[in-house]
Amino acid sequence: xxxxxxxxxxxxxxxxxxxxxxxxxxxxxxxxxxxxxxxxxxxxxxxxxxxxxxxxxxxxxxxxxxxxxxxxxxxxxxxxxxxxxxxxxxxxxxxxxxx
Length: 99
Description:
The protein is of the alpha+beta class. The chain contains 2 helices and 2 strands; from the N terminus they run αββα.
């Protein structure tokens, strides 16, 4: 009886870690909101660095393609989800109660 190889998480592999390190070394601002990223923050912090895919993987984006990799805040990346376009970062203006 042959045992099928266990497919691991491709985001834990050496090529993905290499891509993440390459993007982190560039110290780019968040591609979604344009603000600086806290590259030295704890990875769980909302303003820390994450690798985002411009074309989401669930919509056919390539996992290890440098052209598809973008630097983003964890918060911005989570808010974007699997949409192909980022949601507007500026909230619509509300009418003031002051006249």
